[in-house]
Specification:
The complex is a heterodimer of chains A (about 350) and B (about 525). Chain A is built from twelve helices and three strands; from the N terminus they run αααββαβαααααααα. Chain A is mainly alpha-helical. In chain A, a hairpin with a 2-residue loop joins strand 1 and strand 2. The chains are: A mainly alpha (about 350), B mainly alpha (about 525).
Amino acid sequence: MQTQANLFQHRPSAQWLLETAVAGIIRSATYLVLIAAACIFLTIGIKGAQTVFTSHWPFVNVPFFTEKPSTLYVFEWQGQKREMSDDAFRAFKAAQKVEEIPAETYAHSAGGILPCIVGTVLLVLGSMTIALFLGISSAIYLSEYSRDWWLLRLIRLAIMNLAGVPSIVFGLFGFALFVGYFKWNVSLLAGWFTLAFMVLPVVITSAEEALKAVPQGFREGSLALGATKWQTIRTNVLPYAIPGILTSSILGIARVAGETAPILFTAAYVVLDKYPWQVAKWTDFFFQPVQALPYHIYVVSSKIPQNEYTERMQYGTAFVFLALVLLISLGSVLLRLRLREKLKW
Amino acid sequence: MKNPNRFDRKRLRIDHFIQWFFGSNALLAIIVLALITLFLFREGAEFFPQNLQNLRNYRLAGLEYVGIMRDQIEAHTSLNRSLQDLRLRQSNALLKRQSNALLKLGKTPEQISTALVPFDAFAASFDSSVEELRGLVSEWTDAVSEIKDKAKLREDALQQRQFLLKEGKRAEADAVRVTQIDFAAELAPIRSGFPLYRKASVAFRGKIETLLLQPPPLAARELQPRFEQFQKAARAYLASFPATERQLAKWEQFAPVPWHRAVTSFLFGKEWITNSFWQDWYGVLPLLTGSVLVAAIALAIAVPLGVCAAIYVSELATPLEQQLIKPYIEFISAIPSVVIGFFGVAVLGERLRELTQWQALSWISGFPISERLNAFTAGCLLALMAVPTIFSLAEDAINSVPRAFKEASYALGATRLQTMFRILIPASLSGIVSAVLLGFGRVIGETMVVLLCAGNRIAIPDFTQGLSAVFQPVHTMTGIVAQELGEVPNGTIHYRALFMVGLLLFFLALGINWLAQGIVRRYKISAG
């Protein structure tokens, strides 16, 4: 009886043990990566949420999203520890009629990050407009007009290599060409073009894929009815490819928003006392530097000390930035899934 | 459009124009690449002539000559430092003895200092033995620095004049005064001071020799080998004196500096020193080693993890896991690098240091680590950035192995493990290798993480200490450009040197890319 039951029982052999052990190692290595990333998400998420959200109405730290960064003053007043931003501190001194109050100061640790958010949005909008225009045009040529010849191979090689160029080299290039040679100085325009050239390979590749995904029959049908090549592209190819192009280009947006190195010397300033829309002439708009979220994070994490007062601003900014970039990427993934279901031919 | 329609010429011409327009846009990728090369060269190429002038001035102004003596004194300082270290070890050993003793037989701090009196006397006279020579050399240092400053002024004036001439302002150009410098005459007082140097050097040597003959008794016996090491080093130092003297005697002020030194001193120079009162050096080696060290650490962590994750997702995971893990890892690649760098500064650096302070880990060399931000911290974070790149490319490579390979292996009775390691991985090896190379390219070009977390100390890590070299702070090529370009004036040699670093980085990235593509093309396995 005993032996019969054991016949079908699993007997661990050396081989089986080895298989299980190796599978276990591989599994734990995979989960290690996932946990490491979760650590970053959770640390920044939890600590940042304390800055961004509040426990009472309207549940969002409104000044954080509507004010400029300013210096934080920490001082003792009548036995109480007080924290104030630059303006409030000056008003307080005037109200109390005292000349000087000894205080510890922490740069960029009070106020909000509105100019940085605005700057990042402006940078993304401008550079993506340029990149999409140039990228889609090149992709149309590559997928619709070109035949296989040496120049085409050269173009493809160049695109592939451009994708591997480090972002700091784009920064140097933008600094030499736009800031120095064209004399645009450190400006929005210089930042736009530098970032646009950086994401160009991503946009070209994704646009070409989307164009190639449009069935050949659409083109042939149009051409057979006597349309010219351009009419065919305009009416029978592009409308079907545009959703695909835009969704994949969102990935490019995430990259443009996330990079710091290219705007270090081409577009970003640490502090500006005006908002981008406060310009004298409309042309000045393009030639003004901006503040940007990634550069602000770099400044607050490297140039000021780490302590309880500075931490709020640091984690809050990182939280907003990370949430922004991840939402953009999430949007891209979701849209791609929906598109795949919708467009089937 | 081979058959032009006779009745529709106009539209056809527009069509051609449109095609031409799109075609010219497609050329943009080539143009941008060419422009990057051109402008990096344009800003950076002037570096080599300037560097050559820099090196020539170093010789002409006599900095090189006095530098030989400075090196000699520097070597004495480092010997002195090892004596200080020895003293610290002795007092530590005595303190330990005290705490170990059950009865209070050990020594109080005062007793320790009394015990160390003979040693301190020895150290003090060793330290002071150099005084005479040091005084002489520091006087000469000031003198040659002055000559160098004069040469710099002259060069600036020359440059200004050339600039004015180019602008066509002849009169103003003539008004710029360019003083002639007679380098030989300027340096003559120092060269004629050679007998003084020799006298001081001989006296110095005699002092050390007599000191070495009467070594002090050590307060802690077990440190005797270390002291013997010091004595040996000191004797070797004395033995190098005649060579130094010969070098000084042989030195020629007007020996030509060959032009290739401008290139080699950049590519193989071991020092990157800027804004120094003495001499600026632009050697890329410490930055290159830093970049490569950080990238190597990152890859050593990321390659196993990335490849394992790819194998897991494509071979072992349940369908639900597959659906979740893949987008999750793609999400990791979307985390902006500056956020990862911030995480390193705010959290990881401190946690790693706390980890290394555990007693259980103290057997590892270099533990506990002293610096919060070092190559290892940056490497860990970069590994996280490289994993998604390696993962998705490696997964593609594994998935593109023809199904028949796997089926044939199972049909022959191989287990899952055997199939994985003997069929799938060898078949997709070319893809995995190129994934690793592209990951390397991404890591070496990454800026913000290394700028924030690598510690930013410009020095070649001390590899003689073995593994602990990875826990030293380093500076990288990307980091130095990001850090210093904002602060240097346009057109200076420092500015141009940064562009040369950028150019090197650019070609490095192109080379890695080319290699990765080549490997994929060459070793692709086909199903046939």
